[in-house]
Automatic annotation (TrEMBL):
Domain Helicase C-terminal: 739-907
SUPFAM superfamilies: P-loop containing nucleoside triphosphate hydrolases (SSF52540), RING/U-box (SSF57850)
Coiled coil: none
InterPro entries cross-referenced by the UniProt entry: Helicase_ATP-bd, Helicase_C-like, HIRAN, P-loop_NTPase, SNF2-like_sf, SNF2/RAD54-like_C, SNF2_N, SNF2_RAD54_helicase_TF
BP GO terms, sorted: DNA repair
UniProt-listed PANTHER family: HELICASE-LIKE TRANSCRIPTION FACTOR, TRANSCRIPTION TERMINATION FACTOR 2-RELATED
UniProt keyword list: ATP-binding, Helicase, Hydrolase, Metal-binding, Nucleotide-binding, Nucleus, Zinc, Zinc-finger
PROSITE patterns reported in the protein's UniProt record: HELICASE_ATP_BIND_1 (PS51192), HELICASE_CTER (PS51194), ZF_RING_1 (PS00518), ZF_RING_2 (PS50089)
GO function terms (MF aspect): ATP binding; ATP-dependent activity, acting on DNA; helicase activity; hydrolase activity, acting on acid anhydrides, in phosphorus-containing anhydrides; nucleic acid binding; zinc ion binding
Protein name as catalogued: DNA repair protein Rad5
Localization per record: Nucleus
Cellular component aspect of the GO annotation: nucleus
Length: 918
């Protein structure tokens, strides 16, 4: 089976996480735990990203029974091979389907018999590439086809005996680069005429490298997007001739030129026109071609010809940077098209789907900018969900959350596995078990913070894809976070650029060739981006070279804080203990995960010694545990008290945003946290994978199995309680903290009309800040990710109210906010000072925090203060941040060793640097 093994893994995605293997990729940091919390099963919200499959074998076979079907195919065209278990002549049947979704025939019964079971269990994926064709009008019974088999690298060995027969078939080379794709006619949406894609090979190479590197953070995502959109000049887009505004009475605020350009672009995209003549430019990859008898349409991406006019998608992706005013843009689109009659039986209502944390922002912006009586809206959330579809469709705008979509979607996740199948199942299922959101025929649906839909297996993604809508939009800052497959999932939700909206085609035409380093696929991706996406950043300029929005300047200050003697002593002890354990872990090759929890403790020590529990210090002072032997202990055999203890410990880890000891990712951890009987916490999917290779806890090598693992009860979503109001207030004693002293010092000298945001990752620290501000008689408020929508709205509007001499005493001057509270999307422009109390690895999270203040609506100069405990890991973290930013900046340089690391490898290097271990 030489060729199975000779293909070698080159993917950065094909990770099988385990103590000594690569982790699954990280998720975006943009909306950390916010979205995951309220939904019960987190694997549904964001199951682990799939391992990318690898080519195993390609052999020549046929498409048979062609005479019975009407699907046309050309030579070199890619086709989908889909199982048809309900076929009454052969339950193993595999259909061959062309890009228009028409069946061409079947694969031979003998081949199908060998593949069916493997396909049914999703152990392999298969694709076909036509050798024959049936475009010539002649009668065909069968046509040659090359069939390629792919599988996850981790399954290669298991599959070898199962697929040995395939090597006896006529072997052919794996699919070549997608050289047949001719996309040179694709134009970007600028008027410059430069067009897409760039033919510059160097740029293409860089792009490819960027696309296959480990991503997962905002900066990497931005760099990839910069590259993909580099040829598109958005500054010259035409303005809308008559946008909603003050003059026509629809808005109380005029939209800005960049919003007007986007509005026109969106209306054009909602009404795409197929090319009428051969000289018309292509639309969603379709061009008109001269035929012998009759002109036909040709899809230049798939080479699919057809006489029937293809269906075009209506909508696209808006990738405007933070604070560029996407909310008002979307509302303007609703107003500008209010009188347009939808086609078919689609109604007139627009559905906005957003995370709970920005629900109130939509309501507020409607209140702030839309003139009285111009737009009816309804928030479909919580108790207000007890209305019928008939009521919903009467409004212009319905605002709801992703969780409502997930809850109402008529999908059984054990049923349809992909959004595509879900879409197919739509007609059959929608009327029976669906909630009201799925019964309305929407004029338009909009996914705000739409990167949430990048996981095709998540119920909210499948649900969004199933909504019945004429037009579909996604707003997101990061359409590609981890890999281009993110974009594939968004296309499926948008049902645009068919057949690339089908996962199989996206994989065949883009993902696999990109993985092979095929520059044509990179160009196709660029062209796709040019077709469906409009992107501007805060740094984009208009025709005159001016920034799109003029913002006041921003100044950064690093404030060094000295630890008091007592804290310094404890800090040094914890540092030394961590260093020794890390050193030992490196020497013995055993897990380093326990060092991570020590890092968290060191970071807490930088805030206050009293934030660290005594039990941690006691543990640290005990000798380093040795690997234990014996049978794994099942959770069910533990006493209820011990179980409750573990749950409490896990809850504490979640509150602290601890990182998973396997993937080293705190955002993954909060999605599906679990704890072992020995008290160590991981993401569930990570530990599950570890157990496949070694039944030992990665932290202490204690024998464990799946029954030794405990998860948080699914409805364990504690509501936010103000610690100063609740019974806890009695037990909350003030602690010593040099950082709080420093913060208060500044707050006291700020001018009376200035407001301040205080960010920390540790809620327990924010509790302490609150306590101190109370003592000092300063007015403050608190924003927490666990607050319900009403409370959030109340807190934000209270804080956003400008200070006047009258309300100066009662109005909050300070807002305490968790760095990961899901504050993305919030407007907190009433503040002009920002305190970042604890630095962390990803400077992008801090940038997002600062963006709450430094955005449209900000009138004052903004000051950002970073509180850094001197001579601690905090300063080292800053150095790492700086280096990482530089790495991201040169992320497309092949020589960059670090840019090729997995997150785990990179974090391991960080640990070495932080602890001074060689
Ligand atoms: N044309 C305009 N004139 C004045 N203010 C505007 C205009 N458009 C938007 N704004 C204001 O700009 C601020 C930012 O807008 P918005 O929240 O829509 O940004 P966004 O692009 O959605 O950002 P994010 O990605 O962070 O959610 C809001 O306070 C909004 O009211």
């Amino acid at each position: 089976m030489e060729n199975f093994m000779s293909q070698g893994s080159s993917s950065h995605q094909n990770a099988q996480a385990g103590p000594s293997s690569r982790p699954a990729k990280s998720t975006p940091s943009k909306r950390p735990r916010e979205e995951s919390k309220p939904v019960k099963r987190e694997e549904d919200v964001n199951p682990p990203l799939p391992e990318m499959d690898e080519h195993l074998v390609t052999f020549r076979t046929d498409v048979v029974g062609v005479q019975y079907y009407r699907g046309l195919v050309g030579k070199g065209e890619y086709v989908i091979l889909r199982r048809e278990p309900q076929n009454k002549f052969d339950p193993n049947a595999v259909q061959v389907i062309n890009a228009s979704g028409n069946q061409v025939g079947h694969i031979p019964r003998a081949v199908a018999g060998k593949l069916a079971e493997l396909m049914d269990h999703a152990l392999i994926s298969v694709e076909g590439r036509m050798v024959g064709q049936n475009l010539d009008g002649a009668k065909h019974y069968k046509m040659g086809m090359d069939l390629s088999i792919y599988a996850k690298p981790s399954l290669k060995e298991v599959l070898q005996p199962e697929l040995a027969w395939a090597l006896n078939e006529t072997q052919v080379k794996p699919p070549p680069p997608t050289a047949h794709i001719s996309i040179s006619g694709v134009k970007g949406h600028g008027n410059s005429g430069t067009g897409l894609p760039s033919e510059d090979e160097k740029t293409m190479k860089k792009l490819l490298e960027g696309l296959t590197q480990v991503g997962g953070d905002q900066k990497h995502a931005d760099t990839v997007m910069d590259s993909l959109t580099s040829d598109i000049d958005v500054s010259k887009l035409p303005l809308h001739p008559d946008p909603p505004g003050i003059a026509n009475g629809q808005l109380s605020t005029d939209i800005l030129p960049h919003q007007s350009q986007a509005l026109k672009w969106m209306i054009d995209r909602e009404n795409p026109q197929l090319p009428q003549t051969v000289s018309d430019k292509q639309v969603q990859f379709w061009i008109k071609q001269k035929g012998n008898h009759k002109d036909y349409f040709l899809n230049v991406a798939t080479r699919t010809p057809q006489y029937d006019p293809p269906t075009l998608g209506r909508g696209g992706i808006i990738v405007d940077g933070m604070g560029l005013g996407k909310t008002l843009l979307m509302l303007s689109l609703v107003l500008a098209t209010k009188k347009d009659q939808g086609s078919g039986n689609f109604g007139n209502a627009t559905l906005i789907v957003c995370p709970l944390s920005v629900l109130s922002n939509w309501e507020k912006q409607i209140g702030d900018h839309i003139s009285q009586g111009q737009m009816t809206h309804y928030t479909y959330h919580g108790a207000s969900k007890s209305v019928t579809a008939k009521t919903l469709e009467k409004y212009d705008v319905i605002i709801t959350t992703y969780n409502a979509i997930a809850a109402e979607a008529p999908i059984d996740l054990s049923g349809p596995k992909s959004p595509m199948k879900a879409t197919q199942a739509k007609k059959a299922k929608v009327s029976t078990s669906a909630g009201p959101l799925f019964k309305v025929k929407w004029k338009r649906i909009v996914a705000d913070e739409g990167h949430i839909l990048r996981n095709p297996k998540a119920k909210m993604t499948q649900g969004f894809a199933m909504l019945q809508a004429e037009k579909r939009w996604i707003c997101t800052g990061t359409p590609i976070v981890n890999s281009p497959s993110d974009l594939g999932s968004l296309l499926t939700c948008l049902q645009i650029c068919k057949p690339l909206d089908q996962p199989e085609y996206f994989k065949t035409l883009l993902l696999r060739p990109l993985k092979r380093g095929d520059p044509v696929a990179a160009r196709l991706l660029q062209a796709l981006v040019g077709e469906v996406l409009l992107r501007r950043t805060k740094d984009s300029r208009d025709k005159q070279g001016k920034k799109l929005i003029a913002l006041p300047s921003i100044e950064y200050f690093r404030v060094g804080v000295k630890l008091d003697e007592e804290t310094r002593n404890v800090y040094d002890e914890v540092f030394e203990g961590s260093r020794q354990r890390f050193q030992q872990a490196m020497e013995t090759g055993q897990g380093t995960a326990n060092v991570l929890s020590m890092l968290t403790r060191m970071r807490q020590l930088c805030l206050s010694a009293q934030l660290v529990p005594q039990s941690f210090l006691d543990d640290l002072r005990r000798p380093i545990p040795k690997a234990s032997v014996g049978p794994a202990i099942s959770i069910s055999s533990l006493t209820p008290e011990k179980k409750e203890d573990l749950i409490a410990k896990l809850r504490h880890y979640v509150e602290e945003d601890t990182e998973c000891g396997v993937c080293y990712d705190e955002t993954e951890f909060t999605k599906r946290p679990c704890i072992t009987d020995c008290g160590h916490a991981f993401c569930y999917p990570c530990i599950e994978r570890v157990l496949l290779t070694a039944p030992l806890c990665p932290m202490d090598r204690h024998p464990i199995g799946l029954p030794s693992i405990l998860e948080l009860p699914p409805d364990e979503v504690p509501e936010y309680n103000d610690p100063l109001d609740s019974s806890q207030a009695k037990t909350l004693l003030p602690v010593k903290s040099a950082k709080i002293d420093e913060l208060v010092k500044y707050l006291k000298v700020f001018p009376g009309d200035e407001k301040t945001l205080v960010f920390s990752q540790f809620t327990s620290f924010l509790d302490q800040v609150a306590l101190r501000l109370k003592e000092e008689g300063m007015s403050w408020t608190r924003f927490d990710g666990r607050m319900n929508a009403t409370k959030r709205q109340q807190v934000i509007s209270e804080f956003q109210r400008p200070l006047t001499p009258k309300n100066a005493a009662s109005s909050p001057k300070v807002m305490l906010i968790s760095l990961k509270s899901g504050a993305v999307g919030l407007n907190l422009t009433a503040a002009s000072n920002v305190f970042l109390c604890d630095p962390w690895w990803q400077s992008a999270i801090e940038a997002q925090a600062i963006d709450r203040v430094h955005r449209m609506g900000q009138k004052k100069e903004v000051r950002v203060f970073q509180l850094i405990a001197e001579d601690t890991i905090e300063s080292a973290v800053l150095d790492i941040q700086k280096r990482k930013d530089a790495v991201v900046a040169k992320a497309f340089e092949k020589s960059s060793k670090e840019s090729k690391m997995t997150k785990k490898e990179a974090r391991f290097e960080d640990l070495k640097e932080l602890l001074g271990v060689k």
